[in-house]
Specification:
Strand content: under 5%
Largest sheet: none
Organism: Trinickia symbiotica
Structural class: mainly alpha
Radius of gyration: 18 Å
Keywords: Membrane, Transmembrane, Transmembrane helix
Protein name: DUF4396 domain-containing protein
Pfam family, one: DUF4396
Number of domains: 1
InterPro entries: DUF4396
Length: about 240
């Protein structure tokens, strides 16, 4: 597939969206330097999710994620939907970081896509890279979950790994399916017919599309996390 030629308005919108998401992530990082999360992995989760969730996730951080004293916060726990948002975001942070790493790795080293089936199985590089996206996102998502569930349940490393796998297999799969689905719609059904080709990784339009796709991943993973947390497979956060 060839790369598209995008209009100025889409280029400007993409730049603004990516910059806004990055700015929201930096606001959270600065605040976490003053008020570190009680669970260290959440210091990574909140900024990563703000990269795609922008002001909505920044607001969620200040409402339910910020580490403040019990005296200022009150004794009430966050509502269950907010707990699910945090649990889903925890999964999404691993997916976000995994997709960033895999997409840039395949862009800089195209042989990675060849190893995963480009030319031999897939005519389009994008589909081979999605395999890398899923592998790296899955590994990081399970790792993020491990550093949450292992200390909370006081498990051995092996028990913690098994519990992390059990908690995140369905969640990560649901996220990635939603993300792939919307990314395919944007690239194949919007960008190609309208602009003559897909957006390449080294373009703001690609990462704007990825922000939207990550929101779709959150939407498909949220009900799965609701069930996992309600059934006790995942911990309330």
């Amino acid at each position: 597939m060839s790369y598209g030629t995008f209009p100025h308005w889409l280029f400007g919108l993409s730049i603004a969206s990516v910059v806004l998401g990055t700015a929201c992530a930096m606001v959270i990082v600065v605040d976490e330097c003053k008020r570190p999360q009680k669970m260290w992995i959440m210091n990574v989760v909140w900024p990563l999710t703000a990269l795609f969730g922008s002001v909505v996730w920044l607001a969620a951080y200040y409402a339910w994620g910020r580490n403040v004293s019990r005296r200022n916060q009150g004794s009430a726990k966050p509502p269950f939907p907010a707990m699910v948002l945090k649990g889903t975001s925890h999964c999404g942070a691993g997916c976000t970081l995994g997709d960033i790493i895999a997409e840039w790795a395949a862009f800089l080293f195209p042989v990675l896509a060849v190893w995963l089936g480009w030319h031999s199985v897939f005519a389009e590089k994008m589909f081979a890279v999605w395999i890398a996206d899923f592998i790296v996102a899955f590994l990081l998502g399970v790792l993020f979950q491990y550093f949450t569930i292992q200390p909370m349940r006081n498990l051995s490393p092996w028990q913690g790994l098994l519990a992390a796998l059990k908690a995140d297999i369905a969640s990560i799969t649901a996220w990635q399916l939603g993300m792939y689905g919307l990314m395919a719609i944007i690239q194949l059904l919007w960008f190609i017919p309208s602009y003559g080709g897909i957006a390449k990784v080294a373009s703001p339009e690609f990462w704007f599309a990825m922000q939207l796709a990550m929101l779709a991943g959150f939407a498909t993973s949220y009900p799965v996390n609701w069930w996992l947390i309600r059934s006790g497979v995942k911990e309330k956060m």
